[in-house]
Amino acid sequence: GVAVDPAALDDSEKERLCRRWIDEFWRAIGPRQDIPAPDVGTTPQMMGWMMDEYSKMVGEYTPGVITGKPVGGGGSLGRNEATGYGVTYTVQKAMSRFNLDPKKTLTSLQGFGNVAQYAAISFTELLGGKVACVSYWDRDEHTSHTVSHHTGINPRFLQTITDIYGSINKDKAIEAGYTIEDGDAWISKDVDILIPCALEGQINSMTVDLISDRVKIVAEGANGPSTPEADDFFRDNDIFLIPDFLCNAGGVTVSYFEGVQNDMNYYWTREEVIERLNTKMTAAFDEIIKVSEGEHMFMRDAAYAVAIDRVVKAMEQRGWLFVP
């Protein structure tokens, strides 16, 4: 990646940066090699610029070189909301294990970027649950805040007062009856589920003691939001963890779907994409929980075991390994 704050660049600078990155990196990527995907700070337009630059370098239209592209420019319907929806599908499976009624379930989210926005939307609209609060980074004040509402937040409304980088307009939120709290307030809410969707290391030895006794599930929407010390806390307090590389796999799953559609030059409807995503996420959860319960393993360890076993089997099939 590139160490830069995209909010500090105008559109021309962003485009030149994206194209130059491809100019330097194009030999290391490709639709049958490595395929970059969106991450923090990127937009579909940026991915489209990079695809276009790669196509120029190789002399042919190559949409499959990168994912997260704009719809109509080689992108997939459903890609934008995929990670957040995937979070909710795994949360739904976990709730069923605790006999939690989604309509009586309360959650708190850290972050309000792409993942958190669609996790909140799908949690409320698909499951009928309530989101107590979300946190966000205020780009003007250079600090984090938690936005809450006594009846639960309306994620669709908050989207309308949020910039493309997940920074909520605090004044407009206050005008709409929302309460602004400290950035760490999200983790101490009396909720059933915590969904960290911001940066890594946010649930750690310094913050775990803030977690309410009511919390039953932690769903890692972000990459690496919990430290090993936090994992110990989850084990000791019987908190069910949905590990990051299961919980937030919806994005990379639909990135894979995008590549499949690029290869076919045929594009599915949004409903087809979301249905396939639900099937994949549900199957992955079921496989990991089976190992977790059968081997009495912590969910993160079970997920690692499943993932490593798949890699080993693939290596054996290609003749790279011999395991007697």
Explain how this protein is built.
This protein is of the alpha/beta class and 324 residues long. It folds into 3 domains: 6-75, Leucine Dehydrogenase, chain A, domain 1 (Rossmann fold, 3-Layer(aba) Sandwich), CATH 3.40.50; 82-247, 3-Layer(aba) Sandwich (Rossmann fold); 267-314, no CATH class. 44% of the residues lie in helices and 10% in strands. The chain is built from 11 helices and 7 strands. It has helices spanning 11-25, 44-58, 82-97, 114-125, 155-160, 170-175, 228-236, 244-247, 250-264, 270-294, 299-317, and strands spanning 106-110, 130-138, 143-148, 179-182, 193-196, 217-219, 240-242. The chain has a 7-stranded mixed β-sheet with strand order 4-3-2-1-5-6-7, with helices on both faces. Helix 7 links the parallel strand 6 and strand 7 (240-242). Helix 3 crosses helix 10. The mean pLDDT is 96.
Summarize the structure.
With 324 residues, this protein is of the alpha/beta class. It contains eleven helices and seven strands.
